[in-house]
Amino acid sequence: MQITFFERFEQIPASDWHRLNTSSCPLVSYEFFKALEASQSVSGARGWQPHHMVIENDGIIDGIMPLYLKQNSWGEYVFDWDWAKAYEDNNLAYYPKLVGTIPFTPVTSNKLWSNKLNLADLFSSLISHCHQHEINSWHILYCPEIDSEVTPTEKGKSTTMAKLPEDVYLRHTVQFHWFNRGYASFDDFLATFTSRKRKNTRKERASIKQQGINIRQVRGPDITASDIDFFYLTYQLTYLKQGHQPHLNFDFFKHIFTHLAANVLLIIASHNDKDVACALFFYDDSHLYGRYWGCKTAFNNLHFELCYYQGIAFCIEHNLQCFNPGTQGEHKIQRGFEPVLTHSYHWVKHAAFKEAIKEFCQRECQHMESYQQQCRQALPFKVVV
């Protein structure tokens, strides 16, 4: 097995990416990653230096893992600012670190494209690489959970799954996802709510028409240049209201709207014949992913309608099974989004911090599992799912 690290995405053959990546999710498509680097939204100057791992056997590429050398922790959504501060307080360098993720995209997906290798098979290689190249840690974010237990087979024998090294630590976060349980309509979905929660949701949705707001869905080739311009304006406004510049530039979205148009949904709200708000979604044949939202003028409940209710209605209409509206947000619970655990894996080089970080991760996992159960008790359904 030969491992090479590439500093430019264009060095990875598109044919190998398509051969190894079997997911239909547009957020792990070749065009999505290409747009990130071609637009310079992801670059060394932005604190995201591409450092992609490519694994070969006998000249054949058997695995690809998109990786980035980071000089900050922006855009990751698995927060380690406190770790960096602890290093700084002890006059130690926390950066550079190596991160395996979809930049600015907290969506669980395979982070290694391979037909032969498992993610955990490469942990020791990542550790060796960090030791050899003065990289202080690595972090694989929003990946499927690695089963490291010995589990019985159907014939009563046992099989050993991938074993985690002792100094690789698991972290959890909680997200809120909507699941389609065969609903025939939005009202069919609401019928599973308690009376009070159902009444509140209908009141929120009715307020949109009462305020004179019209909503339209635009997909694929029907998305016009003016729609894209308006979306990017609202996207910028969201970040500027938070006090910093947008992560993704206009060139990135131009590429996406051109090359992934079949997987893009815009939901646009207008008032008095003027567009006032917009939400961007990606979708495939089973999932909807809510990504960005912004508005020029604030209206009551408009965020809930564009970002949640319209997405649920779209999933029901098109028989999509899961809706991931983005990270955080306990307000999603009462609207029928269920708490799910996400998984990430972490390794740090500095020996003095290993035990403290291990204990932190263990406590955090316990807390997140408890928090997930507490959130389940707050769901609006008549029967706890």
TrEMBL record:
Name of the featured protein: N-acetyltransferase
Pfam families reported in the protein's UniProt record: FemAB_like
Lineage: Bacteria, Pseudomonadati, Pseudomonadota, Gammaproteobacteria, Alteromonadales
